[in-house]
Amino acid sequence: MRITLAYISVVLLWATTPLAIKWSGEGPGFLFAVTSRMAIGATCILLTLAVLRRSLAWHRKAWLTYLAAALQIYGSMIAVYWSAQFIPSGWISVIFGLAPLMTALMASLLLKERYLSLSKLCAYSLGVCGLYIMFGSALRLGESAALGIAGVFVSTLLHSGSAVWIKRINAGLPALAQVAGGLGLALPAYLITWTLIDGQWPTTLSTVNIAAIAYLGMIATTIGFSLYYYLLTHLSATRVALISLMTPVMALMLGHLVNHEPLTQDTLTGTALILSALLMHEVFDRFNPTLKPISKNKS
User: Fold this and answer.
1) CB neighbours (10 Å) of residue 267?
2) From CA 114, how far away is CA 108, in angstroms rounded?
3) Which of 16, 97, 111, 243 has the fewest CB atoms within 10 Å around its CB?
C-alpha cells in the first residue's frame, strides 16, 4: 500500500513539475530558479534529518550512490530547466516519456533485468511512435524548440542513467539519505554554475515565480525526490521509469488549461498512442504468463 501511494504521489508531482519549472524561470532566469529550488530543498532535507535524528552513511557504496543521485539532481535537472525556456511545459513530460525505453535498455544490459519481452518491445515501439508524432508538432515551433527537445532528451538520458547506476550500486540506503547525499553534492555545483554564468540576483520576483520556486523546493524536491528514491529502492528501475510514460497526458492538459499551451490533433494522437503503449506494457504479459522474455544469448 505504501509503495502504491508513493507511486501515485510521484506521478502527480511529476505531472505538475514541468509547468512549475517554466513559471519559476520566467523572469529571474533558469539558473536562479533551479539553484534557489535546490537550496530550499537541501534546507528542508537537512531539517528533516535533524528532526528524525538520522545521519548519512559515508562508506564507498554510499558515496557512489550520492554521486549517482547528483547526476540526476544536477545534470538532468539543469538540462531540463534550460530547455524549458524554449518549449511548452507539457512537452517536457512528453519527452521524458522516453525514460522507460532508455531505462529498460540500460537495465537489460547492466542489471540483467529481463523485461524486454516481445510484448514490451511492441509497447515501447508504440510509445515511441506516439512521441514521434508529438515531436513533429513541437518542431514546428522553430529552431529554439528543437534545442529544447534536444536538451530534454539529454536530461532524460541522464535521469535514466542515474536510476540504473543507483540500482547497480545497490547500497541499500534509505531514500531520504540518497536525496540528502545527492543534494549535498549537487547544490555546490549549482551555486558555482550560477555564480560563474549569471551571478545576478533578480531585481523583481513575481508572486508566480516565488510560489513556483517554493513549491518545487519544498514539495517537488523534498517530498518528490524522497518518494522517487524510495520507489527506486523497492521496485525495478524499469517499473519506476514507467512514471515518465504516465505523466505526459496530465502535464499536457495542465499546460493547456492553465498556461494556454497549444493542444493540437497531433498531440492528441500521440497521447492516445502513449496510453495504448502503457496499457500494453502493463496488461499483455499478465494474460500471457508463458511468454518468455527475449534472451540476450540467443544465436
Assistant:
1) 25
2) 6
3) 111
